[in-house]
TrEMBL record:
It is a multi-pass membrane protein. The chain crosses the membrane at residues 52-74, 225-247. This is Type II secretion system protein GspF domain-containing protein. Residues 116-241 form the Type II secretion system protein GspF domain. Keywords: Cell membrane, Membrane, Transmembrane, Transmembrane helix. Gene3D superfamilies: Type II secretion system (T2SS), domain F. Its main location: membrane. It comes from the Bacteria. It is found in: Cell membrane.
Length: 253
């Protein structure tokens, strides 16, 4: 299991307690869906689906307790605010899980061209796919993609076929670029095409897509700046410009 964060370490005994008593009441379909989400987010080696649901329950109780304390201090306890706090506490772990998934997938897509370059050079140098992945893992940047390639290497050494090992990685990551890579490698293996050429095409395509994403974000920047300009910057600017004019009129009157 992966190490827990400091916050989870403090509440983990309570998480295990809730998970033990609640797990038998959860459906198998729900647990499978949550397990899949944890796997895509990279948390499957940190907690189980039962423990994740227990975290949601604890988050709900904590939000209700915090709202109750605030209501007592303000002498205004309203059911509406308690309900909103409970809903927020219940869905906060879901939003956190989605953010972790997006962050992890972004890191994987960012590091993919680098690993494809290592794989291409290793294959063209005469290594097989297992040796190429090993070289890429040793020299590639740290991150979730490195961990996934290590899992692929372990699966292949354990006797699993190369195509199945890469398909399992694609199922764990669920990124379009990885799915495209896996499909290209499977097609090259079936048709007997050159792996080096296939990987080089994939590397060039991923690098072009990364440049296009950066260009898209640069073009979206002016649009995203409109709201803070209108709400925060323009009013302050008008106040600064209007203050000496208003003071001048007041003194003249």
């Amino acid at each position: 299991m992966d190490p827990l964060s400091p916050g989870l370490k403090l509440m983990w005994p309570l998480v295990r307690l809730f998970a033990f008593y609640i797990s038998e009441n959860l459906s198998v379909d729900y647990l499978e869906r949550v397990s899949k989400k944890l796997q895509v987010s990279g948390l499957s080696y940190m907690m189980t689906a039962e423990q994740y649901f227990a975290i949601r329950i604890i988050s709900t109780l904590f939000a209700l307790m915090l709202a109750t304390i605030c209501g007592l201090l303000l002498e205004d306890i309203s059911f509406k605010y308690l309900f909103l706090a409970g809903v927020l506490g219940y869905f906060l772990p879901v939003m956190t899980l989605n953010d972790l998934r997006k962050k992890r997938q972004g890191l994987i897509v960012k590091a993919l061209p680098v690993y494809l370059d290592y794989l291409t050079m290793s294959i063209e140098a005469g290594l097989n796919m297992t040796g190429a992945i090993t070289q890429a893992v040793e020299r590639g940047p740290d991150g979730p993609l490195k961990i996934e390639f290590e899992k692929v290497t372990r699966d292949m050494r354990a006797g699993m076929s190369r195509a199945q090992s890469f398909r399992n990685m694609a199922d764990r990551i669920q990124v379009t670029e990885i799915n495209s890579l896996v499909s290209a490698l499977a097609q090259a293996e079936k048709t007997g095409a050159s792996l080096g050429q296939t990987l080089r095409v994939q590397s060039d395509q991923r690098r072009v897509e990364r440049f296009q994403r950066a260009e898209k974000k640069a073009l979206e920047a002016p649009v995203k700046l409109v709201f803070p300009l209108i709400v925060f910057i323009f009013p302050v600017t008008f106040m600064i410009l209007a203050f000496p004019i208003a003071m001048k009129f007041m003194y003249e009157l």
